[in-house]
């Protein structure tokens, strides 16, 4: 049981850190208008926060998908997007504020990130499921994924 908890923590953390370091950095630079040094600062702040929030998000997403029980592909896409949006945007606002964004930079960064969460909810969900599968894990209602390895 402890081994599975450690694997779940490692998989969820790895998935979140890789995915959102890239996505958040691009959003900060090109949507929020932050300089590259500000992006580096916010990503340095963001990395430990991602480590702290990755597994709680994994729990949240699993719970949210379980209680909403999306019955179609479209419903799963929507629920994955809502789960990601509701959990990540408030954290992201704090990160870019600490990184130096102010005023309209925060507003545009948050709106840009919110739009990204809506678009990236399902791709991140698929990425998370893929990373979990590499650790021999599955989420609620998921079949173990086999990608030839």
Automatic annotation (TrEMBL):
Taxonomic lineage: Bacteria, Pseudomonadati, Pseudomonadota, Alphaproteobacteria, Hyphomicrobiales
Record-given protein name: L-alanine exporter AlaE
Keywords annotated in UniProt: Amino-acid transport, Cell inner membrane, Cell membrane, Membrane, Transmembrane, Transmembrane helix, Transport
Highest taxon, organism lineage: Bacteria
GO molecular function, one term: L-amino acid efflux transmembrane transporter activity
Coiled-coil boundaries: none
Transmembrane parts of this sequence: 9-27, 77-98, 104-124
Any one GO CC term of the record: membrane
Keyword Membrane attributed: yes
Pfam family of the protein (one): AlaE
């Amino acid at each position: 049981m402890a081994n599975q908890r450690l694997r779940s923590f490692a998989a969820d953390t790895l998935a979140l850190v890789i995915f959102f370091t890239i996505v958040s950095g691009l959003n900060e630079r090109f949507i929020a208008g932050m300089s590259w040094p500000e992006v580096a600062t916010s990503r340095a702040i963001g990395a430990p926060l991602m480590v702290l929030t990755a597994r709680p998000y994994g729990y949240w997403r699993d719970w949210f998908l379980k209680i909403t029980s999306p019955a179609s592909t479209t419903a799963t896409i929507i629920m994955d997007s809502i789960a990601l949006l509701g959990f990540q945007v408030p954290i992201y606002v704090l990160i870019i504020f600490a990184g130096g964004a102010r005023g309209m930079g925060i507003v545009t960064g948050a709106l840009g990130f919110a739009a990204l969460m809506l678009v990236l909810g399902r791709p991140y969900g698929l990425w998370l499921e893929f990373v979990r599968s590499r650790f021999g894990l599955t989420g609620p209602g998921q079949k173990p994924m086999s990608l030839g390895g």
